[in-house]
Amino acid sequence: MLFRQLFDKASSTFTYLIASAKGREALIIDPVLENVEQYIKLLKELDLKLVKVIDTHIHADHISGIAELRDKTNCVTVMGDKTPADVVAMQVADEETIKIDGLELQAIYTPGHTIESFSFLMNDRVFTGDALLIRGTGRTDFQNGNARDSYNSIFNKLLKLPDETLIYPAHDYKGEMVSTIIEEKKFNPRLQVSSADQYIEIMNNLNLPNPSMMDVAVPSNLQLGIDFNRQKVNNGVEPEKFNEIKNDAQSILIDLREQNEIDKDGMIKNSTVVRFPEINEYLQQNKNTLKDKRILFYCAHGHRSTLAVQLSKSYQFTNCFHLIGGLKNWKKEGLDL
Ligand SMILES: [Fe+2]
């Protein structure tokens, strides 16, 4: 078997490349958009054909590379069946098997961090996404997360796997790369509890500073260079088209920027301001009013808005679009502020 663990520094995300052998089918788990070219180069160098790409859940801290990989390699996009329908080609149910040439993965539904989180078991190893991290567990305070579900997924599913099973998570912020079930049983501080209630108590009192980001991740990827073409993913819309659809009665226009950016650069008429760090809370609280709306996001350069569309899927909103290149691009086209 060929197995590679790749790391995205900006978001501390692990991406996994798996194949049975040279010249054969490959699979990628949790790709990061900014690294798609790197994956494609590696596939070529290793003489592999990418056939499937999986996201363990809807990520809040980086833009998924699955759409870009699908467009560039014609691979099949896969997620668990709790994900909104339009996102992926293949949805797998709990305990269903995902096959590629010479390899099989078993899907395990592990909600808690988010409602659509799945883990994937492959022989001696399990890819846990953010359901179970090394010496930690994924936060449960946004994206329809739930601490009791997290407890059940961990204690009644993942920890029931053989003790020597290797754990490969979606993130690590301390330099760890792999663990085992027995190690986490013994040393994961959040798992040293005697009841579900005790675990829920811990999870509900984490007081994490920024609800829009993972456990301790900093949104450093928000400052990376922006490639306008790539923002076509997650329903990116060009300024002219965005200008047209924003006037429909059905549309709601959301400005994700900070007040100082708005003061400096102005804003598009009739925008509702929801700072990006508050977007989870806003979507959660306004579920009913937003249900029948078309949500249009914009920000300064188009990165926060790309991520906002991705996050909206956690709340089952699929009628969401964002302005490619943000206000910078809008101004370049000479449109009204
Ligand atoms: Fe996550």
Question: Can you give a write-up of this model?
Answer:
With 337 residues, the protein is of the alpha/beta class. It has two domains: 2-203, Ribonuclease Z/Hydroxyacylglutathione hydrolase-like (Metallo-beta-lactamase, Chain A); 225-332, 3-Layer(aba) Sandwich (Oxidized Rhodanese, domain 1). The chain contains eleven helices and 17 strands. The chain has helices at 36-45, 66-73, 147-156, 181-187, 196-203, 239-245, 259-265, 279-285, 287-290, 303-312, 326-332, and strands spanning 2-8, 13-19, 25-29, 49-54, 76-80, 90-92, 97-100, 103-109, 118-122, 125-129, 166-169, 179-180, 236-237, 251-255, 272-273, 294-298, 320-323. A six-stranded mixed sheet has the order 1-2-3-4-5-6. A six-stranded mixed sheet has the order 7-8-9-10-11-12. The protein has a five-stranded parallel sheet with strand order 13-17-16-14-15. Helix 3 (147-156) packs across helix 5. It is globular, with a radius of gyration of 20 Å. It binds fe (ii) ion. Residues 57, 59-60, 113, 130, 138, 214 line the site of fe (ii) ion.
